[in-house]
Amino acid sequence: MAMKIDFAPANIPLKRRLETAAVLKLVFSFLALAPICIVLFLYLLFTRFWLVSVLYATWWFVDWDTPSRGGRQCALLRRMPLWNYVRDYFPMQLVKTADLDPRQNYVLGFHPHGIMVSGAFTHFCTQATGFSKLFPGLDSYLLMLPLWFRAPFFRDYIMCAGLIPSDKDSASYLLQREGGGNAVVIAVGGALEALDSHPGTNIVLLTSKKGFIKLAMEHGAHLVPVYSFGENELYDQVDNPRGTWLRWIQDHLQTYMGVSLPLFHARGIFQYSFGLMPYRKRITTVVGKPIKVVKNEKPSNEELNALHQLYMEELSQLFEEHKAKHGIPEDAHLECL
User: Fold this and answer.
1) Which top-level enzyme class is recorded in the Swiss-Prot or TrEMBL entry (predicted)?
2) I need a labelling partner for 297 at 20 to 30 A (CA). Which of 110, 151, 214, 238 fits?
């Protein structure tokens, strides 16, 4: 039987159309912009515009270390009205539960990853949800796979948004700055966690993730748990429970390639039946209270495990305190794998 397509009505208000266009741009950037930039760079080499690629390659060589040295944030890009339309599409809200002292540096653990970390990008790479007003004096930086900083042109775009490579050196560069004021945001579960992003699930990969805890201890950066309610509701994903052949393939691809390949789908641009546009589901991201961390450049396993356990408890408590406000059943709990 043919699938019935649910087309969008023709009289949709202009504001909603602009919201859809803004999110389309975000999805396009996430899925296709990097490979297009790579192809463009190579294509130009074989045209009369070859000098553009040669000059960019020269600049690239000189600028190679910039991503790992705090990047190159552009306030104009981060404050563009475009991001307000992205915010309103879902809509999104950033909730503050405690003050963060701007004289300190912080490691914010973002959970869950979701399919596209849409909430993390909008909250911490733009000013659409008011991060700088809620936490004055703090600059936020979101960690992203180093692979994407090897894509010409694309690397400059993501740096302007406040993205830096997700390696220890890049995070350490910011966390060791004197005077504080730096908030490094880490999607702790990483790309692998995206494979568990199904509507109605509350799964985070955390029990073996201790690198960000050690990083915070080495630099005396306070830890802040962050939970994004609604992040897993944006897309449907083909069933891939652990132990199935599909999950086995996805896990191995993630191991060897560094990126996960969830088979996801949601709605389209002009119809609601299928496509890669996310559903209009509310995202409320709650920033928890800071966990004070004393600088310890060589923590013992016992010290590391104790702080990791405290972090998991604080994250679980944050989830429990706010879940009822977001339609999560009382008997549902955060599942840490």
Assistant:
1) transferase
2) 110
41-99 pLDDT, tens digit each = 999 999 999 999 999 999 999 999 999 999 999 999 999 999 999 999 999 999 999 99
* Domain enclosing residue 76, as ranges: 14-325
Q: What is the DSSP string of 101-132?
A: -TTS-EEEEEE--TTT-HHHHHHHHSSTT-HH
Number of structural domains the chain divides into: 1
- Rounded Cα gap, residues 310 and 169, in angstroms: 25
> Looking at the domain assignment, is residue 272 inside a domain?
yes
User: Looking at the DSSP assignment, which residues form a beta bridge with residue 164?
Assistant: 143
Give the E-state strand segments of 70-181 in sequence order.
92-96, 106-111, 139-144, 163-165
Q: Where are the beta strands (DSSP E) in the chain?
A: 92-96, 106-111, 139-144, 163-165, 182-187, 203-204, 222-229, 236-237, 264-265, 283-287, 335-336
Nearest residue to 212 (alpha-carbon basis) of 181, 190, 197: 190
d(CA 140, CA 81): 19
pLDDT tens-place string over residues 271-308: 999 999 999 999 999 999 999 999 999 999 999 999 99
Q: Is residue 29 situated within a structural domain?
A: yes
Rg of the chain over CA atoms, in angstroms?
20
Instruction: List the CATH number of the domain containing 166.
Output: 3.40.1130
Tell whether 3 is covered by a domain.
no
